[in-house]
Write the structure tokens for this entry.
Amino acid sequence: MEERNLRKTRVGMVVSTKMDKTIVVAIADNVKHPSMARSSSTPSRSTLMTKTMSAVLAIRLR
């Protein structure tokens, strides 16, 4: 069998812990513009399920 490629690791900040067993993480990714030499950040939000509410606001997660 073929081995799987390594997965991309994203780093984000905890934004919200108001839901039961769910936290919201904001992930910012820096993307370079194809024609100009500028880079811009593209923010996105993702929800994660947790069994215990051990996450605190403004903690960095992987």
